[in-house]
Amino acid sequence: VIGVASYVGITTIHNDSYIPGNGSMGILIIPKPMNTAINFFIVTILFITMISLGCTMEVSKIRAHLLKPKGVAIALLAQFCIMPLTAFSLTKILQLGPIKAVTVLICGCSPGGSLSNILSFLLKGDMNLSIVMTTCSSITALVVMPLLLYILSQGFTGLKNAVPYVGIISALLFTLVPCAIGIFINHYKPNYSSTITKV
């Protein structure tokens, strides 16, 4: 099934093993060129969106959040204390198997992504704080995430190569680079900011 990439369709895999289920499941097969085009489109839209979010930011407010990092500290506490402990508690309460437990722990220890910034923008939140929080959590995750996974996953197998360093760095770059462009536009060409934000 994986090797077939010449058409888009639904195929059925019958469940003849001991795995419980309804007997079959549908898998959507997408040709590689279409998959590449979709990924390129999503990345482009995300890049433009992050530039527009950067256009709503101000250097003075970013500096203020960094000099008085109360909001950032609360976010890091929630991101790397409350969420991981919640994930760990769920794995124990639900008595998940090793693979499912590690999956839940990875989700609980992962840093916030760009979606939080988009939601903050739509809800008219503090974009400066949101972007600063996302950046700080992504940088912190490079060190804290492996440590948390090591501590919380004692007794579980399947942790090898579990930390998505490439994904974290990519998310950080996709946040910082376009936002920096937007901040630059807002700082030096503020008359273009409203137009870009509307787009």
TrEMBL record:
Lineage: Eukaryota, Metazoa, Chordata, Craniata, Vertebrata
Transmembrane region(s): 38-59, 71-90, 102-123, 130-153, 165-185
Compartment annotation: Membrane
Family: Belongs to the bile acid:sodium symporter (BASS) (TC 2.A.28) family.
Keyword Transmembrane helix: yes
Alphabetical list of InterPro entries matching this protein: BilAc:Na_symport/Acr3, Bilac:Na_transpt, Na+/solute_symporter_sf
Name of the featured protein: Solute carrier family 10 member 1
Top-level taxonomic group: Eukaryota
One Pfam family per UniProt: SBF
Entry keywords, A to Z: Membrane, Symport, Transmembrane, Transmembrane helix, Transport
Topological type in the membrane: Multi-pass membrane protein
Endpoints of the signal sequence: none
